[in-house]
Amino acid sequence: MNEFELKEQIKTLEHKLEQYELANMGIYAPRHVLNTKSEFGKAIKENLKQQKIESKPQNMFHCNGTIQSLLVQNFNFKCSDIIKQLNGYNAESAKLKIQDLANKLIDVCDNYHIFLKSHALFHLKIEQVSLETDYIIFQNEEKYRKQEQTRKIAEQRKADKEWFDRLVDIEQRLQESVFNGDIEETERLQQEAEKTRHLLKDQKAGWIYIISNDDMIPGYKKIGTTRRINPLVRINELSDASHAFKFKVHAFIYTEDCFGLESALHRRFAKYRINQENPHKEFFNIDLDELQQVLLDEFGIDVEMNEDIYDDDEKLSALYNFASDK
Fold it and tell me: In what side-by-side order are the strands of the sheet with 248-255?
């Protein structure tokens, strides 16, 4: 086993161990901390520039010749084919393929008594795989962020329509109570109409939901928010979107500032976030008992954690009644 092969195997084993530990925590952290398309473009361009320099036979071998040129061209061509197939999930297999190509090139050089003086090109190819993979992930995260913005705007519009329709209904009943001379009902409806107008204007009151799904890794929870009058409407929409099973609802928390509470909870449980690089994704690997205790001790929220609220007709009925009173 040559020196390059030994070093690369050690690096691969170390990297696999690190990735295994991170995977157990549900965390993926891209290697390159780059924040814009131009930053990635600049880094990839610089990598390719260095590759061009190191690909020159006189820089790679102790002596120059036709065979050396052909060896480098063949290596670069096959590496390019591997890199073209990157999809954000196959970086490690791509690196192993490139390492295998590098070792085969070294073996050919040994057979022909061609002496390598630099392995820099090999390392630059591995670096390119990391850069290209991180850029793919960056693009996917940007796409997801834009989709989330669009989704949240649509969700807000749905919530506003529900509250507006509710206000119209209250005002119609208020007119009827005034016409009928029902003073007590009139006062109650006036208060309800005033509160509904406030909720429409303020746009903060809503629900925090804590849910999970059987098609997710055990332990993963989604902590999200909705301003819908009945939060089950939103959960049913989520269940229909991209999951094989219906979401299990562990808890609902009604609050006058659902976005503020959601942000506070996400900050508090940041270390449990499954995707550390994308704060738009609301999935956390956290135990329900710990979640319940933190809510009580640090936020003063005493909420029961259920295996699934859908399994309890009494709790479902109470939720519908509570939502209808809001």
Answer: 248-255, 206-212, 220-226, 283-285
The 3-state DSSP class for residue 246 equals: coil
Q: How far apart are CA 139 and CA 188, in angstroms?
A: 52
- Position 274 pLDDT exceeds 90: no
The better pLDDT of the pair 208, 3 is held by 208
Pick from 196, 258, 269: which is nearest to 227 by CA? 258
CA gap 299, 170 in Å, rounded = 33
% of the chain exceeding 70 in pLDDT: 87
Using alpha carbons only, what angle is made at residue 267 by residues 263 and 268, rounded to the nearest 5 degrees?
A: 115
Domain layout of the chain by residue ranges: 3-143, 204-326
Q: Cα separations (Å) of 3 from 102, 126, 209?
A: 12, 16, 55
Smallest CA-to-CA distance from 223 within 310, 324, 292 is with: 292
Choose among 218, 289, 309, 303: nearest CA to 254: 303
Sign of CA dihedral 227, 232, 237, 239: positive
Determine phi and psi for 319, rounding to 5 degrees.
-65, -45
Instruction: Read off the pLDDT of residues 23-76 as tens digits, 9 standing for 90 and up.
Output: 443 344 556 667 789 999 999 999 999 999 999 999 999 888 899 999 999 999
Secondary element (H or E) of residue 208: strand 206-212
Structure tokens given for 180: 């009928």
User: How confident is the model over 211-234, as a mean pLDDT?
Assistant: 91
What are 245-271's pLDDT values in tens digits?
889 999 999 998 999 999 999 999 988
Q: How far apart are CA 279 and CA 37, in angstroms?
A: 19
